[in-house]
Amino acid sequence: DVNSRKCLNRFVDEGSLYGLSIATSRNGQYVACGSNCGVVNIYNQDSCIQETNPKPIKAIMNLVTGVTSLTFNPTTEILAIASEKMKEAVRLVAPLLRLLKRLFEVQLSHKRSLS
Predict the structure, then answer these.
(1) Is 1 inside any structural domain?
(2) How many whole angstroms separate alpha carbon 29 and alpha carbon 83?
(3) Count of CB atoms within 10 A of residue 107's CB?
(4) How far is it, in rounded angstroms, from Cα 61 to Cα 91?
(5) pLDDT tens per residue across all 115 residues of the chain
(6) Which domain holds residue 84?
(7) CA distance 22 to 69
(8) Would you say residue 13 lies in a domain?
(9) pTM of the model as a whole
(10) Residue 28 lies in a domain
């Protein structure tokens, strides 16, 4: 709780040895945790507050380098996953947990074909 400066709960990110990033959705539904091995676990926020070993509702393993940035869009429709360790290492994931096409890769391919 930020106002009282008290920790409400601590939880273990399943399978993660070293966490690099964390994000919460504005609607309070999800918590996403990014690890050094490229895995992002998505949890129900309530389970993270109530349990010490919550089970992720989805594990996303689409990056091969550490996940250094995570952010949900304002309506929690898309989770952006990125790594600063590799060029163009960006993924967009729907909270319903289907991987979307890599928007930036598609745009870059289109730009290259026009050159």
Answers:
(1) no
(2) 24
(3) 10
(4) 10
(5) 678 888 888 999 998 889 999 999 999 999 999 999 999 999 999 999 999 999 999 898 878 899 999 999 998 889 999 999 888 888 888 866 444 444 545 555 545 555 4
(6) 19-114
(7) 8
(8) no
(9) 0.78
(10) yes
Q: Give domain status of residue 88, yes or no.
A: yes
Q: Which amino acid is at 32?
A: A
Looking at the structure of the chain, the number of domains it has is 1
Q: What does each C-alpha distance from 48 to 36, 113, 114 come to in angstroms?
A: 20, 45, 47
Q: What is the DSSP string of 6-26?
A: --------TT-SSEEEEEE-T
- Write 27-32 long-range contacts (CB < 8 A, 24+): 27/75, 27/76, 29/76, 29/95, 30/72, 30/76, 30/79, 30/95, 32/70, 32/72, 32/79, 32/81
Residue type for position 3: N
| 32 token code pair | 């996403």
Instruction: Give Cα 100 to chain centroid, integer Å.
Output: 14
